[in-house]
């Protein structure tokens, strides 16, 4: 350790290129992922505006854009899904928070493989560039849905999209490679580079979540990589993996896609739950309720997530005998997540709660995700799903899970760790304005959507008024569009706050929230190498409100012996 | 990092076994009836893979953790494999 | 002294090896998924054996021996590191690279022969899988050759000295590529 520290002392100050673009420091790489993710969030948000305008006022000119052709509408819904899942959720929740927090929280100087880390963000940047490029090639961008089902996606003449879809596939492949590299780094770092005293069961819960997410990703993405290569070959090499006329099987893609697709949703969910689980104890001044059950539930959910995938395929024409087993596993997987939700509520119960912006967003995540999770149960039961599949019920369900995960939890994490990442405080008042408008308009938009779904409004249609039976519901579509536009506008306070605070926010101290985890022992922001001396860990991360301690918090790396005769909680 | 010179398998002997097994499975495909040949061929393939993994990749001498790292993905692939049966094997 | 390897090794296994095995775990799912798909689609329809009979069996067999032997030379290179035998290391690494290139050449030759006879990727579902699986495998062989070449160059220039564990890591990857072929050969050529 001393040898590595002295290595740092001889290290000259890197120039511009090494500091900002070619950095191997996990904190800089995290910020690079964050920047890319926020960029794509804006692009994705813009697609939302176009989609919603078209749905509310079909075949009218979208202000600031123009008419939307039905083909282009397909591009919009495809790219909206692709962008939000793979280019917003993944880079922000895993790339940014995972990279920033894991080494700091385990007391390490950096990741196990810093250069691999740099390579991973560069590959992701390349994937981003390719996806961006796909909008401008002849034939336009991919339009076969974010799920890219063949045969539609397998032959150019079916969509009219040529290189757009090929580049889409390539962008995904590169994104997968990037996160595989990240996953290797996260797991090896957490396994090998923990500070003395940091046993696995003293890890902050978000680290457990990030690790489980990494394992899920690493083990589930393989079959889809194979499947994507097969799809690309069908498009450009004349193979017939998915084309029935050549002996192929369109259904094979669905199985390969969802075999990954389902664990993938937990890959993004778990870090988000981790963010909420870190914030709640700090702003309740109480320990986490049920640390061990939460860890075991996370692992159980991770394992179960590999055997639920075909609930996305109940009406795909797959063997109906598969419906029952997959319904059962899907219902079962709600149990560990319910446990985690109960543990969160129990953590809050009786706590001394302060409603900082981070806490508001954490609570908002819990509240909205709860609705998402409960509506998932309807979808998971095959007989019900047969009715609501491919309707707006499903759309609302997954927005009630993915938006809390990506945005509510993402914002919670940003407001919470902003002082550590940027060394300054964000403006709380503006943050609260941001929260309330976001929360209100999000629910205003998506609650009515459940009704649209049960009344039979189908997904991915460009013009609902074409259908007689949908015409009476058009006012609901208009309402949703207005709410969504207001939701998008509500993000402006955040953008202002974020950018302003980065340069003019009040300078932050080391530990503005008086939290216990190791990152708060480092400077704000931490330098290269993170800690002045390697921390030693003495206890679990959630010792808040200990009677024996003068303050209501006790950092993991502070030695403490209780006065004689007083018991200290031991773990 | 000093390379572990303690236990070391006879790499050459393993290679001889591998070659022999290739010959066996190739002959089987030519000589035996279809189903017997299939069974033999894939058992042999499994044995060869284990020989390489345990000896050349030194899994035999590694901590159980690495076994788990190798075994977990295999288990997952097997699950996927069997789940695909109803749709592709039983339904054509 | 490679400080990275000397840092806290909580699991008792060097970071590089842990990282490599995680990588291999994901690779197992890539090829495993492809192979599982191949088997399952094949079991569901007739005519694959006939198509498979069109493959150049002898070349496939030769390639199997080539790759097996390259695994031997690779692990002997690793053994040479432990015995502090730089000449042995360079010799065996060199042979491994040579054998890898031989594999690729034979494969290219096979592909050429198949194309000429009209068995392109568009020739049917068997051929789709054949080109897909062996193509992806060949790309991995190529990548392995490149990695081994980099390690060899480092060994030639004595730059490898503090990083000798990289021979072991390169070896793990190479053996994995060999194992994939151990399954591909019977799946495609012997049935």
Descriptive notes:
Chain A is 63% helix and 0% strand. Chain A has helices at residues 2-9, 16-21, 26-56, 70-106, 114-133, 156-159, 163-192, 205-236, 250-284, 291-304, 323-348, 357-380, 382-388, 392-422, 428-454, 474-489, 492-504. In chain A, helix 3 packs parallel to helix 5 (114-133), helix 9 packs antiparallel against helix 12 (357-380) and helix 12 runs parallel beside helix 15 (428-454). Chain A is globular, with a radius of gyration of 24 Å. Chain B has 92 residues and is an all-alpha fold. Helices cover 75% and strands 0% of the residues of chain B. In chain B, helix 1 (11-31) packs antiparallel against helix 2. Chain B contains 3 helices and no strands. The model of chain B is unreliable at 1-5 (pLDDT under 50). Chain C is mostly helical. Chain C is 80% helix and 0% strand. Residues 1-8 of chain C have low confidence and may be disordered. Chain C is built from 7 helices and no strands. Chain C is elongated and about 55 Å long. In chain C, helix 2 packs parallel to helix 7 and helix 4 packs antiparallel against helix 5 (86-116). Chain C starts with a helix and ends with a helix. Classes of the chains: A mainly alpha (571), B mainly alpha (92), C mainly alpha (191). Chains B and C meet through helix 1, helix 2 and helix 3 of B and helix 2, helix 4 and helix 7 of C.
How does the overall form of chain B come out from the CA principal axes? flat
**Number of discrete helical segments of chain B:** 3
Mean pLDDT of chain B: 86
Give the class of chain A from helix and strand content and strand pairing.
mainly alpha
In whole angstroms, the N-to-C terminal distance of chain A is: 26 Å
Structural class of chain B: mainly alpha
Low-confidence stretches of chain B: 1-5
Give the percentage of residues in beta strands of chain B: under 5%
In total, the number of strands of chain B is 0
User: Major sheet of chain A, described briefly?
Assistant: none
SSE pattern of chain B, N- to C-terminal: HHH
Number of continuous helical runs of chain A: 17
Report how far apart the termini of chain B are: 55 Å
> What is the ordering of alpha helices and beta strands of chain A?
HHHHHHHHHHHHHHHHH
Helicity level of chain A:
55-70%
Mean pLDDT of chain A: 93
